Amino acid sequence: MARGEGAPADEPQPDGARTAAHDMFDRDKASQALGIELISAGGGSAVARMTVTAGMVNGHGMTHGGYLFLLADTAFALACNAAGPVTVAAGADITFLRPTAEGDELEARAVERASSGRSGVYDVTVTRGGDVIAEFRGRSRVISPGRPA
After folding, report:
1. Is there a domain that residue 30 lies in?
2. What does each C-alpha distance from 48 to 5, 34, 51, 119, 143 come to in angstroms?
3. Which domain holds residue 96?
4. Is position 74 within any domain?
């Protein structure tokens, strides 16, 4: 069961339904400054999208890994905060599989894998046009049960 008053993780929110994650994203200046878009959030999952800009490319002509991590971390945050209690990352790691470049549109899909008490595990897949670019696993911790994000 997803935390808080939200729907179970296997039941997505109706299209266009606003969640606590939407309110959190409205205040997320870092993600917005990078052009990250919230596509959907609810039911223990979320989708975020970002286009790689010239300022995100490293000395090898590839997207800097920090930006890929940030996109995945944003989708993770949206998924674990959709139910309402303020939830933060307890830890995360990422595996980079393919390079991306300026102009590439990336999508991060996060899904809750397990939750117990105040802890949760989420997987995020970052793709470009159907190709898997990176896999991210985040561990979450609810820090204020019962209070909206």
Report:
1. yes
2. 23, 12, 11, 22, 23
3. 20-148
4. yes
| pLDDT tens sequence across 111-138 | 999 999 999 999 999 999 999 999 999 9
CA distance 76 to 106: 15
Angle at 81 between CA 32 and CA 19, to 5 degrees: 80
Alpha-helical (H) ranges within the chain are 20-26, 29-33, 65-81
DSSP single-letter state for residue 83: T
Q: Is residue 31 part of a domain?
A: yes
Q: 52 φ, ψ to 5°?
A: -70, 125
List, for the chain, all residue ranges whose pLDDT scores fall below the cut of 70.
1-16, 145-149
Instruction: Residue 55: give its domain's CATH number.
Output: 3.10.129.10
| Digit-coded pLDDT (tens) for 57-66 | 999 999 999 9
* 10 is a domain residue: no
